[in-house]
Amino acid sequence: MAGRFARSNTMLGLAALAAAIVLFPILIPNPYYLNVANIIGLNTIIVVGLNLLIGFAGQISLGHAAFYGLGAYFSGILTVTYQVSPWLAMAIAVAVTAAVALLIGIPTLKLHGHYLVMATLGFNLIVNIVIVQWDQLTGGPSGFPGIPSLSVGQWAFDSDMKMYFLIWSVAFIAILVALNLVASRAGRGLRALHGSEVAAACLGVRIKSYKVKVFILSAVYASLAGSLHAHYLGFISPKTFDVFFSIELVTMVIVGGMGSIWGVLFGTSFLTSLPNVLHFFDEYKDIFYGLIFVLILIFLPEGVVVALRNKVLAKRESRQRRGSEAEAEEAVQPAVAAIEPSHGSGDIGGRTRRLAAEPILGIRDLHMSFGGLTALAKVSFEVPTGSVTALIGPNGAGKTTMINLISGIYRPYGGTIRFRQNQITGLRPYRLAEMGLTRTFQNVQIFDNMTVLENVMVGMHAGTHNEFFRSMFRLPGFKKEEDLIEQKAWEMLTFFSLEDKAHAPAASLSFGQQKRLEMARALVPSPSIVLLDEPVAGLNMTESLAIASLIDRMRSQGVSVLLVEHDMNLVMGVSDRVVVLNYGRKIAEGTPQEVQEDKQVQSAYLGSVA
Amino acid sequence: MAQFIVSGLTTGSIYALIALGFCIIHNATGIVNFTQVDFVSLGGLMMYTFLLGMGLPLVLAFAVAVLVVAGVGALVERFAIRPAKSRAVIILIFITIGVSILMRGTFKILWGKNQMALPHFSSESPLIIFRAAVLPQSLWILSITLIVVILLHLFFTRTRVGKAMRATSFNSRAAALMGVNVNRMIQFSFALSGALGAVAGIIIVPITTLSYDIGVMLGLKGFAAAVLGGYGNSVGAVIGGLTLGVLESLGAGMISSAYKDVIAFTILVAVLFVKPSGILGYGEKERV
Question: Is A103 touching B (CB cutoff 8 A)?
């Protein structure tokens, strides 16, 4: 299995890194290079954290030099001015920085794009100016000297070599922890919200909390590096922690390759040593630095390491393709693999089709408008448990608005939505996912930045529990749940005949496959109801038929379906009940037969014959 | 009080001009162009060279300096933005950061690290208006800014090129289908932003000092002003610039001038927290 293969690759990478760390000072005992290596190590710690934020969660921060500075100054001031033990000071620095990141993060991460950049940049400027101005405490612009070395008992980390091993041990652990996080439920949640926030939320990812958590984590990484920096150099000055350094840090992430932990090592080593290498260009060094930087971004925008990796992968793939040219066209008809709906909500376990008295979804007087435009006017209808209920109507009738209201993306202006016994009006999408309500999207919202398998694994987010801490440190219980998630995802891929694409990037699928992938992702957590928003729009006849039979089989396994669709063959063939909307009002409801004979429906679709 | 407002409006005008430059490029490309910062420096530096180095008359030096910087703006687009293989916003933004480093490195070599000074446009003795001492240069700054804003408005609403640029910013594909040369428009917006930055640099430098990186702080404040006003909104940029300038000046006067920049950015961050899309920005609603 390729998953295992990737894992062994990671182990190999870590072993190589460990060997390189040990061998470097033996092979190159030059103190100057050792000093550069230490700075690279410190930067690596920060950039690994920053890459989690930027490369995986997709949030840009131009303020991380400030967190680095907070770590350094807290360590410095606490140990020198207040005689606190360095290790305790380091812990306090981490705690304070985490608290600051929490305070900054909650409002800031609500912002998008340029606003987020500006807010973090502003934060960095403020911290920097405060450090410069509050000179009684910080020493002001001339810096803060005399910070003691770290020590354990009598043994002090008082040489470049000793600090080298300390810094790189921390960097190694930082990388290990980050790799653990990335390959976990929490890590997939982060990448999913980068790919599509709406889709991630509808699968149970707590968007806001995830963003804040990863922001805090990256700040903690920076703070740790800051404390080490203070104790290593013994002297800190505000210049080190200004906005330009924040920019440089982000540059290291980009040059190495966003979303690649190994890329970080390259980006950091390259850009940290570059000014030293360019030293003999003297006053021209800024020009060369800028030029190299710009050229990389223009011609290798995915980052040097990622670009190389893609090249190698592409070569390997083309070799494989030549080997299996004869392989048959992909079967459209889904494999008839039995899949047992289990777990999650109790009452769907393998039950045969039966319309229970209690509706699974009850919509009452739902009202919604945008600006002055009424999208839905007091619409009421029910979805009987275990049924396929279709919601149809001409364009602009309010169907997608209805789906968005039910799945919690919009909040209705009036009316109530009941899901089984519960009032769910206005609940957030992730809550609904946890309760067993999932959906697909009219314009597919797959996570382009992940593989097909990973996309489906994100589907298991609701109802599973491996959070940041357990993932980062691989605590007991982690492996068991992770295996379960992967196993369920494979079953679902097989059910939707996507198993041979499992490790392909989701973006490489055809449109029809993407639609199926989205359904697989919505179905994998064994929901009690799935909302399908135009599942066959844009598909050809065979693909539509395949989807129809899939919907049929969902129902036979006890999953209720609310279907929005324009394709009347599908609607009339597969639905138990049909609800018709026109201009935001319900104009008819009944069996497919009844609805087809309804005069109002006919006139809404064909124009009145009167 | 009146004193603080006048000086606030003066620096606020500069922020407004720079913010307009940020907006124009944002509307054309969706990116933040950090070389805007260096357009400001380069404006001042070119003015120094043409006015003091080559002895051109004031008006001519002004015009030539603006044109040169506009040309540099067009070159930045042609050689750094257009050939980029990725259209991802973050990559393009960091390309402009890289070019900015490159430009500053070049300026440092060409003009050196020393502080320079430019003469005021007219007399240096302050006039007393409403009990506030006002430098004639402040009046120059305010009136030139006003003229530039009016010209810009006329350009965007009355001229063919201006309308084509607006069309490009609303929907570049539709504009292309209507026969607008989108690449040319993007290049033009870089040139225009260059010119705006240059004007800002040229008129402010006489009352500050001149150095190869004078535009950095001014430029960041200009960026802040653009964000404050609602990024991409030109009326917002002007309002944002003036608001930031006045609040900063009042804060510096009443609290502490050492924390002037802290005050400016705290106001900015506070406004963003209350209204994340800026003063005149519209909330973006994701369509699903």
Answer: no
CATH number at residue A479: 3.40.50.300
Q: Do A82 and A208 belong together in one domain?
A: yes
The domain boundary, picked from A241, A257, A278, lies at: A241
Residues 26-85 of B with CB under 8 A from A: 26, 32, 80, 83-85
Whether residue A571 is contained in a domain is answered as: yes
Which of 480-519 (A) contact B at CB < 8 A?
A: none
Residue finishing a domain among A241, A273, A307? A241
Range of the domain at A39: 30-241
Rounded to two decimals, what is the model's pTM?
0.88
Distance of CA A197 to the CA centre of its chain: 8
Would you say A541 and A332 are in contact if contact means Cβ atoms under 8 Å apart?
no
Q: How many CA atoms within 13 Å lie on the side-chain side of A391?
A: 30
Tell me how far apart the alpha carbons of residues A240 and B263 are, in angstroms, rounded to a whole number. 22
**For the segment B213-268, what is each residue's pLDDT rounded down to a tens digit?**
999 989 989 998 998 888 888 889 999 999 999 988 988 888 877 788 888 788 77
Query: How many domains does the structure of chain A reveal?
Result: 2
Instruction: Flag whether A190 is in a domain.
Output: yes
With bands split at pLDDT 50, 70 and 90, how would you rate the model's confidence at B17? very high
Do A253 and A267 meet the contact criterion of CB atoms below 8 Å apart?
yes
CB contact under 8 A, A119 and B262: no
Distance CA A493, CA A504 (A): 12
**Residue A503 three-state SS:** coil
Count of Cβ atoms closer than 10 Å to residue B277 Cβ: 18
Q: Does residue A306 sit within a domain?
A: no
Q: How close is the nearest chain B Cα to the Cα of A126, in Å?
A: 5
Q: Under a CB-based contact definition with an 8 Å cutoff, are residues A55 and A240 in contact? A: no
